[in-house]
Amino acid sequence: QKEVEQNSGPLSVPEGAIASLNCTYSDRVSQSFFWYRQYSGKSPELIMSIYSNGDKEDGRFTAQLNKASQYVSLLIRDSQPSDSATYLCAVPSGAGKSTFGDGTTLTVKP
Amino acid sequence: ETGVTQTPRHLVMGMTNKKSLKCEQHLGHNAMYWYKQSAKKPLELMFVYSLEERVENNSVPSRFSPECPNSSHLFLHLHTLQPEDSALYLCASSQDLIAGHRTTNTGELFFGEGSRLTVL
Predict the structure, then answer these.
(1) Contacts of residue A44 in chain B, CB cutoff 8 Å?
(2) First and final CA of chain A: distance in angstroms?
(3) CA distance A28 to A48
(4) Which one of A97, B14, B39, B117 is most buried, counting C-beta atoms within 10 A?
(5) Quick check: A44 and B104 CB within 8 A?
(6) Mean pLDDT of A4-28
């Protein structure tokens, strides 16, 4: 089992819809979770962090964490074409180490 | 200058060449990283420096040699590379939490734009 797994994608949604990105992790002691966005040809950019069970909202983005199920998700409301990118889930897993998922590529169609 | 800058942005080298990638962070962070990103593969951690000491060497071949002269600069020296080493090499920095002699990675990484390496 991979340490961090994301839904394989690619994911395509129409403009204005909700995009749902999912991530599961294997290390039960993980305490913090991060979502990065990577546009094609660019480097990853941190967009959300979550540390506690429940929801965390930032504008159109909502991160959801369920530690019992070892599951973290990212919801993007009112999806825009500019949201088209690869989204990476990352989980710190030791001194100086973050393990990344394979990424889910999202396309928002106008 | 802001953020994390990497040079060169693109590099083409033969298998017998020696070259270096450079990274500089202007964020006042105390940890720096090299990641490798190949097509269709997840980000792979190569090296971690925290407080200028190497704390992670993720089973990277010796043809990759990191150097961290201070907390703001990180180099990756390359020699006798193979075509399969062609990839995007990303530098990142973070502000680790320090307690006594221990550092804890917060997980919040700030990436440079990357150096696209092609080995012929």
Answers:
(1) 43, 90, 109, 111
(2) 36
(3) 20
(4) B117
(5) no
(6) 92
Give B31's strand partners. Answer: B50, B94
Picking from A42, A94, A103, the nearest residue to B42 by CB comes out as: A103
What is the model's pLDDT at position B119?
94
Confidence of residue A31 (pLDDT cuts 50, 70, 90): confident
- Residue B44's H or E segment, with its range, is strand B44-50
Token pair of B111 as six digits: 């990436």
CB contact under 8 A, A102 and B31: no
pLDDT tens-digit profile of B73-101?
A: 999 999 999 999 999 999 999 987 766 66
In A, which residues are within 8 Å of B33 by CB distance? 96
